[in-house]
Amino acid sequence: MPSYRLHYFPESGNSYKLALMLTLCGESFEPVWTDFGGGITRTPEWRRTVNEMGEIPVLEVDGVKMTQTAPILLKLADQYGRFGGDTAEEKFELLRWLFWDNHKLTGYMATYRFMRTFIPNSDPQVLKHFRYRIDDFLGILEGHLARNDFAIGAKPSVADISMMAYLHYPSDEHGYEFARSHPAIHAWLGRIAALPGWKSAYDLLPGKRLTHYAK
Questions:
Q1: Which residues are listed as membrane-spanning (predicted)?
Q2: What's the rounded Cα separation, in Å, for the pair 144 and 100?
Q3: What backbone phi and psi angles, to 5 degrees, belong to 191?
Q4: pLDDT at 191 exceeding the cut of 80
Q5: How far apart are CA 103 and CA 105, in angstroms?
Q6: Residue 206 main-chain phi, psi, to 5 deg
Q7: Beta strand 58-61 pairing with 64-67
């Protein structure tokens, strides 16, 4: 079986996506905490030796470094025969929601949460703009999940793992109380959390935490 090393920091939802996928597939990984808050990923040495794109996470598979969460999730789904699509229609739907998440939901929520909670003195107008966009995206997801148990229908997929990552963090980080504001999303998060082996990011990913500035 492959050996895995995951370069991460605990607040990274993208790191959590890979940690959760491996865990749900019954695999373990060696955690490699990365000092993102200290700026290590912006150093020339780190980019030369770990990831030229300057991003976390990085998954080492038998010593080979892999980057970009979405293609890694798809590779793992194919490798383990889990959380993929069975039919052409399901595979298309999986890609549709995975790409939408990367471009819209995760793209905005990750930045909004980071600015809101983990840096001091964020520009309130920037936060207001991001919140407006995220409200729209959450409304789209809420409508879809009111009609479907999971992203592609009746079973979970890597699209769900991707979309839920940043939404599952504590409400004091992202500022949403989904039980009140988005009940279908809240119920969906519960269905994912009920999967055998599920753990939250802060349970799966140990290490020094970023300073919390949200009020």
A1: none
A2: 13
A3: -65, -40
A4: yes
A5: 7
A6: -80, 175
A7: antiparallel
Separation of first and last alpha carbons in the chain: 45
Q: Tokens standing for 209?
A: 């935490």
Among candidates 214, 129, 127, 131, which has minimal Cα distance to 173? Answer: 214
Nearest to 60 by CA among 29, 81, 27, 25: 29
Cα separation, 58 vs 56, whole angstroms: 6
Residue 36, classified by CB atoms within 10 Å of its CB into exposed (0-12), middle (13-18) or buried (19+), is buried
59 sits in which H/E element? strand 58-61
Give mean pLDDT, residues 37-42. Answer: 95
Dihedral sign from CA coordinates of 180, 134, 118, 97: positive
Q: In this structure, what token pair is assigned to residue 139?
A: 């409304």
pLDDT in tens, 152-183: 999 999 999 999 999 999 999 999 999 999 99
pTM here?
0.96
For residue 141, give the amino acid letter: L
Q: How many residues in total does the chain contain?
A: 215
65 in Cβ contact with 58 (< 8 Å): yes
